[in-house]
Amino acid sequence: MTATAQHPLGSPFSAASTARDVLAGHDLSGRTAVVTGGSSGLGLETVRALVEAGARVLAPVRTAPSALDGVETLPLDLTDPASVRAAAARIGQAVDRVDLLIAAAGVMATPPQYVGPGWEAQLAANHLGHHLLACELYPLLRAAGSSGGARVVAYSSAGHMLTGIRWQDPHFRTGYDKWLAYGQSKTANALFAVHLDALGRADGVRAFSLHPGKIITGLQREMTRAEQVDRGWIDERGNVVGAGFKSPSQGAATGLWAATSPLLDGLGGLYLEDCEVARTAAPDSSMDAGGVRGHAVDPGSAERLWELSQAATGAAPLGG
């Protein structure tokens, strides 16, 4: 997969499509989905839509949600490798296959913080924890891949345009910038999907990353209201006023399209937006113009990040 593979497929859906629109007509009975971040925001919308479509849904969450019919919750702290391994073990005890793994949990623009083995918190929560979880669940993904196919969906963001991977200082030891840290983690999400797809395709496991769009959810909890007002996202009363903002259901649509669309059969390693394959963006393009920068879908960088992440998390090789 290279950036040149980023060509729209003619999807019948758009930025205005909702989670229910995308799953209309899909019967997911007999399929098992694991969704991180399922207690709020886009993860919660994703969980609800999958349950309505008949899927069995397991939601590893840091904070227990209010009661959701048909959802099995279990504890998960993505910044703690021991918690990730424990969650994966519990999932393995509950099911014998995972058809869909949707990595929707995330944080944004957090204050400087080091977690787990000394990881920068945004890289840990958004990427490294999900990397370890996917590796731990890989035998279950492979089981689904051998009998119909499995898909892994990683939530990235247009924030990936802020920076590539800071190879010499990924944990910001020499000075912290909350937006560059966020951007790096979102680039990491996209590169994760590129290399997981390269490794998994022979086993029937395909992976995608995506930009869900601009949505006001709990993701902005580390930002003050004044900061969000200054950015033009909300007004002084907290009402969403930014141009092009989606509802949570619209924000969840692209991830569900990635998980279920037959247009994506036989494909993988692609970056998606607005329920479509995104075009390659010019190096100097605006974040609001859409598309994916080459640094986020480069196979060489994806392999390098995979090796860095394997070393950091101690994850077993997928073939092991």
CATH topology: Rossmann fold
> Tell me, what's the shape?
globular
Tell me the span between the first and last alpha carbons. Answer: 24 Å
Question: Number of helical segments?
Answer: 8
What's the helix and strand layout?
Blueprint: H1 19-23, E1 32-36, H2 41-52, E2 56-61, E3 71-75, H3 81-94, E4 100-103, E5 114-115, E6 119-120, H4 121-145, E7 150-155, H5 178-200, E8 205-211, H6 225-230, H7 248-260, E9 270-273, E10 276-277, H8 299-313
Can you characterise this structure?
With 320 residues, the protein is an alpha/beta fold. It has helices at 19-23, 41-52, 81-94, 121-145, 178-200, 225-230, 248-260, 299-313, and strands at 32-36, 56-61, 71-75, 100-103, 114-115, 119-120, 150-155, 205-211, 270-273, 276-277. An eight-stranded mixed sheet has the order 3-2-1-4-7-8-9-10, sandwiched between helices. A two-stranded antiparallel sheet has the order 5-6. Helix 2 (41-52) crosses helix 7 and helix 3 packs parallel to helix 4 (121-145).
Q: In summary, what is this structure?
A:
This protein is an alpha/beta fold and 320 residues long.
Annotation keywords:
320 residues, single chain, alpha/beta, 8 helices, 13% strand, 35% helix, eight-stranded mixed sheet, Rossmann fold, two-stranded antiparallel sheet
